[in-house]
Amino acid sequence: MSATSDTTTSPTCHSTGEHRPLARIVVRQLIPLALVLFLATLVFGALLVHHYQQWADAAALRDHVGNHAYHFGRYPHDAHNTTATLLADGKRIAFLPALCAAAITGLLTGGEWGTRRFALTLAQTVSARRWFAARWTGLAVLFTALLLPLVMLYRFTVVHAFDLDLLTYGVDRQTVYFTVGPVTVAYLLLGVAAGALTGTALRRTWPSFVAAPALTWLVAAVLVRSRAALLLDFPAYSEVHGMHGGGVLGLQFYDLLPTDSYVLNSLQPGDYWPYQLAESTLVVTVAALFALVAFRTLRRRTGQP
């Protein structure tokens, strides 16, 4: 009787574990993180909407004092102050989410190894490759879903201000116009891939937490300062004049975002999409390489195919 019972129940338990929806498990584990990030996104989204409403005051001021006084005078809603506000918003969107995504992914991935939870993962019917692929995909989807509305809202605000000529002239105007866009999401995916790679390679929680954003930052800096995007967007290459001292190794940063003001000042509004898509292509390619190396490292660590 006992042998019969064991024979009938064992396949059932195995089948239940094997067919348990992996996506549901990942979603359940990410819910607390998603709630925290959603609240932060909601607050910043409300701030962007509030700042967008201030452009009406800026336009009214320009109509009142004149275009020259609006751009070169000093008023609460003049071109200088409104552009500075837009720059401050851009600092929070352009690269900081990518660094946060890298740090969180590195922390969670390294934690799987550092807290010995990975031994439990290996004992399940789901392979380690599928388990980590589901977690990394879940993180990428979560971060992208939260960041994309902010990128669209910010871009809408910039285009509105640019079309009405409400921004200052010079590098600040070029920075807010060309910096945020598809490449912002590409940097986010780079951060997730860097976190996956460092967490799998280092297998420690806090070293991965530090190494992942550092790797993301360095790769982005080299891509921007080497002007690699211009190799794909070659018509813009002939428009760029000047090079900062130190070349690629003399990394210049707009706060946390790697930038090259000589490139930005040389671009025209029509160059926005070609430049963004070329840069995004390079960043996504590097992210894919990082993900590939992470899976190869995972295979070596576990011995699983």
UniProtKB/TrEMBL annotation:
What organism is the protein native to?
Streptomyces actuosus
**Organism taxonomic ancestry:** Bacteria, Bacillati, Actinomycetota, Actinomycetes, Kitasatosporales
Q: What is this protein called?
A: ABC transporter permease
- Its domain of life reads Bacteria
Coiled-coil region list: none
Q: Which UniProt keywords apply?
A: Membrane, Transmembrane, Transmembrane helix
**Could you list the residue ranges that cross the membrane?**
30-52, 93-111, 132-156, 176-197, 209-228, 272-295
